Amino acid sequence: MKPNFYAGLELDRMAERRGDQAWIESLFRKPDSRLVPVWRSRNLVVEGEMPQAVFLSTIEVSATLNGSTMFLGLHGETAYFAADLSPVEEAALPGVVGPQGKFIDLRAVGAVMDRQHGALLAYARGLAHWHSRHQFCANCGAPSEAAEGGHVRKCTSAACAAQHFPRTDPAVIMLVTHGDKAFLARNNRFPFPMYSTLAGFVEPGESLEETVAREVWEEAQIRVTDVRYQSSQPWPFPCSIMLGFRARALSLDYKIDNIELIDAGWFDRAHLRARHDPDKFRTPRGDSIARRLIDEWIAEEP
Ligand SMILES: [Zn+2]
User: Fold this and answer.
1) Where do the structural domains in the chain lie, given as residue ranges?
2) Interval between CA 168 and ligand 1 midpoint (Å)
3) For residue 193, is the peptide bond before it cis, meaning its omega torsion is within 30 degrees of 0?
4) Which residues, including other chains, have CB under 8 Å from residue 172's CB and lie 6 or more apart?
5) CA 197 vs CA 39, 122, 186: distances in Å
6) How far is the CA of 138 from the centre of ligand 1 (A)?
7) What is the pLDDT of residue 60?
8) Which neighbouring-strand residues pair with 46?
9) What is the CATH code of the structural domain delimited by 169-300?
């Protein structure tokens, strides 16, 4: 099965050697090691028809990094690191990263750039975001510091010594169908006129199938059965993994709150297959698993 966008990264994360600080430092000093810069949750990209990720030389930018780098892994012999440049003022960025590219939201270009590069930028962005939000120990409040090549944060209080690991929040996203119709809705945060699948976060003490059923009921008062896993997608915007499902509705009845969901309905396969004026109706962006769930369902029947 083809991986979703931002998944399928061909990088050996070398998790078993992350604790070897001397080895990581030696990799960082190699002239061909590459640095993925992140600035305020944005990635460095040269825009255009085929947007290009910009990778820097670890050595050239190391002076400005203050030791705050994350080891991403090895691609063949080449080591990849990420660094969060957020403290650098915008006007000073070209002096640090050079004249090429612009820091932009990955979601604006993810669907049209090289898949491997998109996945690498997503990984760097997600890890950098976690560090930025976990500077203090959640157990005792003391400052925490990065360890294991940036894949752990350790509490600096000897009495506490808690370790914290990068966080990924599981969310389910599901296409609800009934015969030849699929249920799509417009959230008040969606750009007009985009309709998408329902989604929601997994709560403690819930199986994924239970989350799917609960969310569909809460958002649309539809009872579902036959909840089936389809595929998953890392979604570090800022820190989720999307778990894609399909579910069958027991009836066509539904009711939305008209606050969070401002419109919804059952859409025929033929309607979803047809070309629409994108100013009147459209499905989600091409890099999203929501789009894939819809497109795969559409393609099933001739
Ligand atoms: Zn602590």
Assistant:
1) 15-133, 169-300
2) 20
3) yes
4) 199, 200, 202, 208, 211, 212, 215, 242, 243, 244, 245
5) 31, 22, 9
6) 7
7) 82
8) 52
9) 3.90.79.10
